[in-house]
């Protein structure tokens, strides 16, 4: 048994061991393994927990995710190939199901065989684990366990894992000891595009809502455009006639050009925008075959007093080509001082 202090400070600890003679010959025993690894850049969509040759049992894994931008990371399915299978005999329905909470859950939880021990709200550092104690996976010649990596390293969403398994003597795996310099500080926070002075839609206070649901939606998964702060205010489940009223703060009285950036998609509706109950032009058709931002929309120059103003969104219908879900997305409002 060997211990190595790879930190910069001395460590004191106490070890107590109990040794007993094993009645089974050593060449018939499977030995417990626990090894950490990360793959950067990953070369496959199926990101491997464990790849090994020989006889043994897979017993689980810890997955650590660095997800620095908005957007749910956990849609990837787990897959197990046992003894050289061409198609995985285990093919799951999503990371959130494999790790036992069935929907994106940013809270910490602790269970007997599955846990979320670190969470920064589905953004930042996340650590989850799943232990196959009552349902371990035996293999005779080989095992490969992987999880689909939903986002590439250019996002950058990074994975690291500790795999746990038993392996008989003579078995092989590709994992060697990783220097401490490669285990720490490999994650970086990317620069996020933001429009200077913008009032982010997802941060505006909701004054009134006559139907539907509102939430912040991360827009990083949609590559055909830029949204400020990689997010927008997302209004779903609304119907024609429903209104969403947002508080629009103005710090200094004066004349401002009112600009907005909205989102378009195949299930978005037609909306009428109003400022302080005065219509801002004609209804806007937000249908598009793909998820894209609109161009920056200008609604002219308005005289605004200091204080809170009222921005109203009313669903009036949908394009004939659209899926009739009547969704709406507001990226930002920009009040530009005008002469």
Give an overview in words.
The protein has 339 residues and is mostly beta strands. It has two domains: 26-183, Jelly Rolls (Sandwich), CATH 2.60.120; 199-337, Galactose-binding domain-like (Jelly Rolls, Sandwich). The protein is built from two helices and 24 strands. The chain has helices at 95-98, 180-183; strands at residues 31-38, 46-53, 56-67, 78-82, 90-91, 109-110, 114-119, 124-131, 137-139, 142-148, 158-167, 199-200, 206-209, 213-218, 231-236, 243-250, 254-264, 270-275, 278-279, 284-285, 292-293, 297-304, 307-317, 328-337. The strands form four sheets. Strands 1, 3, 6, 7, 8, 9 and 11 form a seven-stranded antiparallel beta sheet that branches. Strands 12, 14, 15, 17, 21, 22 and 24 form a seven-stranded antiparallel beta sheet that branches. Strands 13, 16, 18, 19, 20 and 23 form a six-stranded antiparallel beta sheet that branches. Strand 18 (270-275) and strand 19 (278-279) form a beta hairpin. It starts with 30 loop residues before the first strand and ends with a strand. The relative contact order is 0.16. The model has no long low-confidence stretch (mean pLDDT 92).
Architecture blueprint of SSEs:
Layout: E1 31-38, E2 46-53, E3 56-67, E4 78-82, E5 90-91, H1 95-98, E6 109-110, E7 114-119, E8 124-131, E9 137-139, E10 142-148, E11 158-167, H2 180-183, E12 199-200, E13 206-209, E14 213-218, E15 231-236, E16 243-250, E17 254-264, E18 270-275, E19 278-279, E20 284-285, E21 292-293, E22 297-304, E23 307-317, E24 328-337
Antiparallel strand pairs: 1-11, 2-10, 3-8, 3-9, 3-11, 4-5, 4-10, 6-7, 7-8, 12-24, 13-16, 14-15, 15-24, 16-23, 17-21, 17-22, 17-24, 18-19, 18-20, 18-23
């Amino acid at each position: 048994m060997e211990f190595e202090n790879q930190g910069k400070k001395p460590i004191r600890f106490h070890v107590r061991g109990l040794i007993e003679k094993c009645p089974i010959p050593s060449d018939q025993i499977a030995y417990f393994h626990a090894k950490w690894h990360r793959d950067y850049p990953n070369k496959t969509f199926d990101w491997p927990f464990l790849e090994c040759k020989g006889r043994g049992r897979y017993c689980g894994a810890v997955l650590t995710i660095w997800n620095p931008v908005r957007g749910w990371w956990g849609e990837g399915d787990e897959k197990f190939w046992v003894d050289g299978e061409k198609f995985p005999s285990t093919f799951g329905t999503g990371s959130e199901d494999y790790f036992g909470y069935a929907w994106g859950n940013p809270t910490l939880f602790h269970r007997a065989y599955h846990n979320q021990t670190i969470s920064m709200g589905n953004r930042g550092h996340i650590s989850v684990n799943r232990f196959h104690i009552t349902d371990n996976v035996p293999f005779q010649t080989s095992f490969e366990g992987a999880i689909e990596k939903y986002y590439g390293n250019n996002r950058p969403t990074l994975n690291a894992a500790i795999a746990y398994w038993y392996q008989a003597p003579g078995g092989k795996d590709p994992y060697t000891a990783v220097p401490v310099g490669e285990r720490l500080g490999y994650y970086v926070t990317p620069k996020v595009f933001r429009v200077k002075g913008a009032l982010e839609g997802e941060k505006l206070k909701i004054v009134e809502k006559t139907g539907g649901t509102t939430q912040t939606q991360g827009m990083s998964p949609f590559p055909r455009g830029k949204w400020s702060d990689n997010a927008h205010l997302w209004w779903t489940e609304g119907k024609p006639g429903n209104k969403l009223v947002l508080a629009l703060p103005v710090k200094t009285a004066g004349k401002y050009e009112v600009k907005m950036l909205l989102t378009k998609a195949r299930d978005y509706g037609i909306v009428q925008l109003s400022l302080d109950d005065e219509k801002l032009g004609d209804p806007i058709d937000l249908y598009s075959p793909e998820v894209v931002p609109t161009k920056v929309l200008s609604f002219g120059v308005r005289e605004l007093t200091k204080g809170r103003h009222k921005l109203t969104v009313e669903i009036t219908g949908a394009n004939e080509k659209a899926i009739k879900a009547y969704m709406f997305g507001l990226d930002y409002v920009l009040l530009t001082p005008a002469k």
